[in-house]
Amino acid sequence: MIRGIKGVKDITPDQIPKWTITERTAHALSHAFGFHEIRIPVFEKTELYVRSLGDATDLVEKEMYTFSDRDGTSLTLRPEGTAGVVRAFIERGLKAQPSSRKLYYIGPMFRHERPQAGRFRQFHQFGVESVGNAHPDADIEVITLLWRYFSALHLPGLVLEINSLGESSDRQEYIRTFVSFLKGKEPRLCGNCQRRIHTNPLRILDCKVPLCRETVKGAPSITEFLSQPCQQHFDHVLRGLRLLGIPYTINPCLVRGLDYYALTTFEVSCSVLGAQNAIGAGGRYDGLFQTLGGPPTPAVGFAIGLERVILALPESALPQPDPWVFIASFGEKGREAGLSLLDSLRAEHVKADTDYHASTLKTLLRSADRLGATYVVILGDDEVAGNRITLRNMVTKEQVTYPLSTASAAIVNQLR
RNA sequence: GUGGGUGUAGCUCAGUUGGUUAGAGCGCCGGAUUGUGGAUCCGGAGGUCGCGGGUUCAAUUCCCGUCACUCACCCCA
């Protein structure tokens, strides 16, 4: 037997209701907030991700699905969505279209990691990118959409953490101070962090190794290094969140794993998820456009892991399935009449189905019950002879009869 | 990449101190006389006991290896 790939899951029909509601809610709320869908390729030139994510990040160093095209070009399955959206934005001149500055996407991402609860090699993200607006109101809008999305799905145990990384000049000064603070303390850091001092010092801040947490305790906070405009930007965002009643916690150690972030960063975690509890995260990335050869363009966005949303999704978030009709037709004449009734209901886009295997009323009804039919049309030779059908409500067991000739219209009416 | 746990029916799991035809519940299929589902009762199908090797008269059981799944670390959504 050929098996599927490790960490790559099938989404079977029984799970589809959960996916449908999470995706529908993403589309509906994005539209409500004035965002427009964009569909970008699932693979790009490797260089795009290396340049935008940073070559010292774990994602680029060891988690990308990279392969050679026939001409030798290195290609990579997208590990996240922002880089591709920014590339498309620059390449397609979307700046010229006012309706294309607030974008969202839903689709699969690929990372070569060891799978565990809430982590897969192919997973799905819903993300938004608000491009071209440096005003903190844009940050507020994006965070609000993130929070309202989770609220709409009734996800339990959520915490929003927020931080400001400052502009790159602030950050560089902070990093210098932080690194000199760490000088001499190297033995009191984990091996990973000793390496990070040179590659990515900020990540030491949110290292979970107890030794590192202890060592970093007395370190200066990045908040003290924010320039006046950065501080105002951050304060404006926080004020907006309070105004909208969105609860947050400031976490000065919150550092994103990707290089392109600056200023506002945020992360929502969910307590019911287990070890991989980050369910959505994002921030501002004003420098990325230039990194990718575009004009200076401010932008802010987030990405949500849909598998994690679905893990946390309560049953109560699932909508009632649409009512539908099972056609229980039997006998030679009955089957014939059933066939055409089935077809006319379907032509009206009413869900109608039957079981060709069952041939007696008893087995037909049992089949209808197991399939969860709301109504059953009983249509045997007797009904055909009397030019009528019986419509049975499977919950109340009430039965009413309609003339066969107008049955389709009557049923359509009943279901709507 | 590192560590732990688990591999027996479609699913959830028993089990054998090594011994004949390996079990249960759920699910599935069928039946309980005439054209009315869910409950109950009865019956049925379905298993190379993950794979390979070793020890043994005999291995699903003990040993070794391997693969898969899973949880956790790292990191991330």
Question: Can you walk me through this structure?
Answer:
With 416 residues, this protein is of the alpha+beta class. The chain has 2 domains: 13-166 and 226-317, Bira Bifunctional Protein, Domain 2 (BirA Bifunctional Protein, domain 2); 325-415, Rossmann fold (3-Layer(aba) Sandwich). The protein contains 15 helices and 16 strands. The strands form 3 sheets. The protein has an 8-stranded mixed sheet with strand order 1-5-6-11-10-9-7-8. Strand 9 and strand 10 (278-284) form a beta hairpin. The longest helix is centred in the first third of the chain and has 17 residues, at 16-32. The radius of gyration is 28 Å and the shape is elongated. The two termini are 46 Å apart. The mean pLDDT is 91. It binds one RNA strand of 77 nucleotides through residues 3, 6, 57-59, 62-63, 80, 109, 111, 113-119, 123-125, 127, 192, 203, 208-209, 257-258, 267, 274-276, 278-281, 302-309, 328, 330-331, 360-370, 373, 376, 378, 380, 382, 390, 392, 394, 397, 399.
